[in-house]
């Protein structure tokens, strides 16, 4: 496959050109070379990396974690156990977030149920509850 410009690679990978430039600054991807006109040129591996990054982001990995996964992926001495461990830690993180979101939802539901939905704003139980929250300074 011939080398492609940043625009061609962006379309192929389904990302914005600025996203590719951002990933370059983060060290996640790099052009195979620059053209005589100083345009970035990318090979098929760059498209593969972009698709990998996109998929990893979709399932919740941060860019730092994705960088680590890309490094592991290239290492000959790497082991699947390391990747599995990272996935299990990500599951634990997701579970913590789900629990936190459930608490937020329950609080919002409770507050919404306490509000009659009409009347003067000064009597709004939702705003009163937010106002009376204790400051932790």
Q: Could you tell me how far the N terminus lies from the C terminus, measured between alpha carbons in angstroms?
A: 60 Å
- Tell me the Rg in angstroms: 23 Å
DSSP helix count?
A: 6
Please mark out the parts with pLDDT under 50 across 5 or more consecutive residues, or reply none: none
Counting copies of identical and different chains, the oligomeric state is single chain
CATH fold-level topology of the largest domain: Multidrug-efflux Transporter Regulator, Chain: A, Domain 2
Report the principal-axis shape: elongated
Main sheet, how many strands, which sense, barrel? 3 strands, antiparallel
How many strands appear in the DSSP assignment? 3
**Could you spell the SSE succession in H and E letters?**
EHHEEHHHH
Determine the fraction of residues in helical runs and give it as a percent range. Answer: 55-70%
Helix/strand/pairing category: mainly alpha
Supply the CATH class of the largest domain.
Mainly Alpha
Widest sheet: strand ordering? 1-3-2
Work out the strand percent: 5-15%
Number of domains: 2
| Average pLDDT | 91
CATH architecture assignment name of the largest domain:
Orthogonal Bundle
Verbal overview:
There is one protein chain. The protein has helices at residues 6-13, 17-25, 44-58, 63-74, 80-114, 125-131, and strands spanning 4-5, 33-34, 40-42. The N and C termini lie far apart (60 Å). Strand 2 (33-34) and strand 3 (40-42) form a beta hairpin. The mean pLDDT is 91. It has six helices and three strands; from the N terminus they run E-H-H-E-E-H-H-H-H. Helix 1 packs across helix 3 (44-58). The chain has two domains: 1-78, Orthogonal Bundle (Multidrug-efflux Transporter Regulator, Chain: A, Domain 2); 83-132. 63% of the residues lie in helices and 5% in strands. The protein is mainly alpha-helical. The radius of gyration is 23 Å and the shape is elongated. Strands 1-3-2 form a three-stranded antiparallel beta sheet.
């Amino acid at each position: 496959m011939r080398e492609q410009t940043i625009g061609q690679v962006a379309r192929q990978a389904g990302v914005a050109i600025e996203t590719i430039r951002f990933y370059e600054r983060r060290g996640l991807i790099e052009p195979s070379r620059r053209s005589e006109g100083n345009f970035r040129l990318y090979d098929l591996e760059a498209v593969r990396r972009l698709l990998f990054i996109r998929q990893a982001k979709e399932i919740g990995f941060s860019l730092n974690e994705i960088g680590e996964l890309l490094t592991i992926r290239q290492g000959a001495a790497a082991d699947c156990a390391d990747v599995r461990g990272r996935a299990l830690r990500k599951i634990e993180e997701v579970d913590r977030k789900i629990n936190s979101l459930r608490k937020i939802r329950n609080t919002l539901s409770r507050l919404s149920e306490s509000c009659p939905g009409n009347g003067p704003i000064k009597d709004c139980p939702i705003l009163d509850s937010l106002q009376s929250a204790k400051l932790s300074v």
